[in-house]
Amino acid sequence: MIRLYPKPQKMIIDEEKVLPVRGKHVTVVTDNCDVHACMIKLSTEYLSRLFDTSGPEDRRAPLVITLSVDENILEDATGQAYILTNDCSGTISIVGSSANGVLYGVQTLTQIYEQATPNLPKFEVEDWPDYKYRLAANWLQNYEVARWGYDRGQGIAKFIEAGKQRIDWALKYKINMIYLDCSYADFRIQMFPGFSQIASTLNRYARERGIRLMSGGTTAFGMRNRTSYPDGETYPCMGIAYPED
């Protein structure tokens, strides 16, 4: 049984009808969308990793994947909707309400492929988010927030590489906001040399995938637990203590 996460709004899968894909060369066709748009280029790149899109033209003909944009599909207000279909005729279609929707359709196709290969079942998936922004923190990219660090002493280059892997993981499951760093307004923790390189590189990588990196955390301006507000006694939370209080 194929399980998709998050569960699409509509999903019809007929596993009795299948399209063999292993060993087939695939042609990716873009229609009614800007082939130079970053997310369309990324969609094509992800598909090339998933399928074999190299080789002679005549060998690629048996399977075609079409990518297109129609901003009117599914009355979507978020720009993140998509319709993904495989009628087992040799063509898989991904229509997004934007390039972002197309990219999400590719991620869903990836999940189906990983569970069903070498044969893709007949399917129709319609999906759009209930919430425009979907944030997850601790199990994603929580760096310094609340003292849980993602750093393992591997150096800046490896840290960026690991961060990109986690961003790709978030994209696969359509998480589009990630806590990147804690902004300590009282400057108890000094940022280290190279921090701006990490932040700018990962922010650019994330935004290309429709993901926003958020900065936030425990500061000296009100984000403390108090017995009463606004001036009550503070108390430790999440393993954080303020002895001077």
Concise summary:
By secondary structure, the chain is an alpha/beta fold. It is 27% helix and 22% strand. The longest helix is centred in the middle third of the chain and has 18 residues, at 99-116.
Rounded to an integer, what's the Rg over CA atoms?
A: 22 Å
Strand order of the largest sheet: 1-6-4-5-3-2
Low-confidence stretches: 139-148, 183-190, 218-222, 238-245
Mean pLDDT: 79
Separation, N- and C-terminal Cα atoms:
55 Å
Characterize the overall form. globular
Count of alpha/pi helices:
5
CATH architecture label name of the largest domain: 2-Layer Sandwich
At the fold tier of CATH, the topology name of the largest domain is: Chitobiase, domain 2
Strand content: 15-25%
CATH class call of the largest domain: Alpha Beta
How many β-strands, per DSSP? Answer: 9
CATH superfamily of the largest domain: Chitobiase/beta-hexosaminidase domain 2-like
H/E element order = EEHHEEEHEEHEHE
How does the major sheet shape up? 6 strands, mixed
Count the domains: 2
Can you describe what's shown?
By secondary structure, the chain is of the alpha/beta class. The chain has two domains: 10-127, Chitobiase, domain 2, CATH 3.30.379.10; 135-215, no CATH class. 27% of the residues lie in helices and 22% in strands. The strands form two sheets. Strands 1-6-4-5-3-2 form a six-stranded mixed β-sheet. A three-stranded parallel β-sheet has the order 7-8-9, covered by helices on one side. Strand 7 (135-136), helix 4 and strand 8 (177-181) form a beta-alpha-beta unit. The radius of gyration is 22 Å and the shape is globular. It starts with 9 loop residues before the first strand and ends in a 30-residue tail after the last strand. The relative contact order is 0.13. The model is unreliable at 139-148, 183-190, 218-222 and 238-245 (pLDDT under 50).
